[in-house]
Structure formats: C-alpha cells, structure tokens
Amino acid sequence: MLNLLDISGQKFYYSTIEEVIESCSQNENCAIIIDENYLEEFLVNGNDIIGPNINQIIIISDSVNTVLSKLEGVSVLLLAAVSLKDAVRLAILGEALSSVVVCVPKEDKESVIKILSEVAGK
User: Fold this and answer.
1) Dihedral Cα 122, 5, 64, 43, nearest 10 deg
2) In a 10 Å sphere around its CB, with 0-12 CB exposed, 13-18 middle and 19+ buried, how is residue 21 labelled?
C-alpha cells in the first residue's frame, strides 16, 4: 500500500486487492473505496475482514443496483459514488468512522493523488 495523503485526520492509501486484504486485516475501522470492477475479487478474497476490520465500503459504480446484489448480508456502511472524487468526499464525511481509507480504483496512483489534492484543497 502506498500512503498518498492525509486529509482531516484520515490517511488515504492506494492499494491493490492483495495489499488491502493484508493491510486492513491488521487495522480496525478501515474504509475502502473500490471500483466495481474489483468488488467481486475483493469479496471472494477478503470477505473475512469485512466487519471486524473494514467498517465502510464505498463503491464506485454507474449502476448501484448491479453491485448491491453482491453485497447482500454484508453488515457495514455501504455507500455508492459515481466517481472517485465523490467517493473521496463521502469518505471524508465518514472521518469519525474510519481513520484509514484505502483506495482500490481503476485510476492510476498519480490520478488518485491529483483527485485527493483537489478535494482537500491542496
């Protein structure tokens, strides 16, 4: 995982599915921002850390109804956003819930840093 930026007391990271499963299993109260293209792989490989370690999942998707069926029975805060920028804004609003936010987007890390900087006003 790559530490990207701290915003309002939250640490934002860029990660792959494998890294997020390993890192979040060692932390409590993590939020994950994940593109819908990676959601199924995450659910198959990281289902045991959802709840105990990950308390918030923000899915980037154009069609929320498509991905919600995959999350049936998951008991964490589920949010959806149409863009990474909106997902970051939602994560910041949930700062009281999660001090660590891990991004698994389709964008590369440079694009993610740019978006985080824009939202943070830096």
Assistant:
1) 170
2) buried
CA distance linking residue 32 with residue 88, whole number of Å: 10
Task: Please tell me the distance from the alpha carbon of residue 1 to that of residue 17, in angstroms, as a whole number.
Answer: 10
- C-alpha 70/C-alpha 72 separation (Å) is 6
**Contact between 39 and 33 (Cβ < 8 Å):** no
Q: Alpha helix (H) ranges present in 7-105?
A: 17-24, 36-46, 64-68, 84-93
- Asked if residue 31 lies in contact with residue 58, where contact means CB atoms within 8 angstroms, the answer is yes
The whole-model pTM stands at: 0.91
pLDDT in tens, 38-62: 999 998 888 888 888 999 999 999 8
